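Example record

One chain of 469 residues, shown exactly as stored in the release files.
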Amino acid sequence: MTEQFVGCTVSITCVEEIGTYQGQIVDFNDQKVLLTKAFCNGVPHSSSRVTINAKDILEISIISINDDAGKNVADAETQSRVIVKRPIAKRAGRSTSDFTPPPPPEVQVQTQFTLKKSIESTFQMEIPANGRISSAEVISKSNQRKLTHRQRRNERDEQAFGTPIDQCLKQDFDFEKNLALFNKEAVWQEINSSRPDIVRQSEINKANKSRYRHDENIIESAPAAFRQIIVPYPDRTEYVTDDGLIIPSITLDLHRQLIGAADRFGITWERRVELFGRAGTEIILQLLGGGHRFNPNNAHQRPTVVALCGPHRSGAAGINCARQLSSHGVKTIVFIENSEDVFLLQELSLYKLTNNKVESDVKNLPPVVDLIVMALCGENSPRTITSVAKWANNNRAPILAIEPPSSGTPGVLSKFSLLGALPLAHSTDNGRLYLLNLALPNKVYSDVGITYRSPFGPKFVIPLHANDS
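Predicted structure tokens for this chain:
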């Protein structure tokens, strides 16, 4: 009887030192088993053939048998088997069923019993009846292999679609009954028992906190607590940065004292105007599109910027900004009515070296530009600018004001404003405020009674927001 197992694929569980082997039986007797195509503990064995002694075997499970082996065992039981075609539900394009049923259950059980008894008699050991020997499934698979591809396909279709579903749809699914079978409380207790004590305690504390209704779930923001700039007599408005630092506004008189102290210590206007021009240029380049607009392959879309400048230091900063913009390939036009101011003349002479236009008549300004630099009015010299304001408003281009009056430029609504040192209490007509780091030493601030610690961090220009808290 041992010849019938030659060619079968088996799984052999040996003593712990040897492990588990899978392979195809080449030789089989009461002393040893010879396997080929062997795997040891799931890894292909280095030898083409492996010999396992009977005394080392604890359990043998048949994985599959070859057609000849299955035939030798099941011939007697299957000789009288008759293939019967059973009626099934008709489908479109098909009148009969060519489904071939598997061998009767009695034949499969008898085959499995015969194989099991043969192994027990060969090794004088008992094979546990725990389902490890799957001979019935193997015989069924071997029978399926004898079917043609079309027959196997039709068999799958019958198993999937041959059963009517009307009967299944008559009964509603009881969700509550099935949900009751799941003990959620016990599962949660098991999960929580595996967590560290500190995690469970934090979750308990979180659950004990007050719960809000949907109309109460609003947490009011607390006042910002980062106050590192203190002025002797602040103005009525306070600002806050993106990081929560409070920037107090100062009066015009204190602002003049601060600028005077900077001049005395050597931080002169010639140094500060370059910082204003640089900061204004960086903001404008981003407003004009940044790297997407200023691309060597996009030279046909050069932007145009008009700087409206007055005869004072703010006007000189506007001209400096126009000069620095021209070095980035921006087409600039400087408008100025009066050039008698000494600071203005210095910057104007440098700007003319760029070969860009200087206009003194509003009628010569283009009707459409990309951006306007507003530097017509300083804090010390506000005046009415009706004609220029009308042109700026009709142009509809965004306006960036440099050091504008705190009440705003007359007749003009700026979208952005660039400020230096510390801000005044600015009107909403000046739009969004940006504070420039003039790099004034702390000694300059302390000389006028200001306790100062820089709020800029890694940035050169920071936005300011009204502190409503």
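Notes: The CA atoms of residues 271 and 438 lie 9 Å apart.
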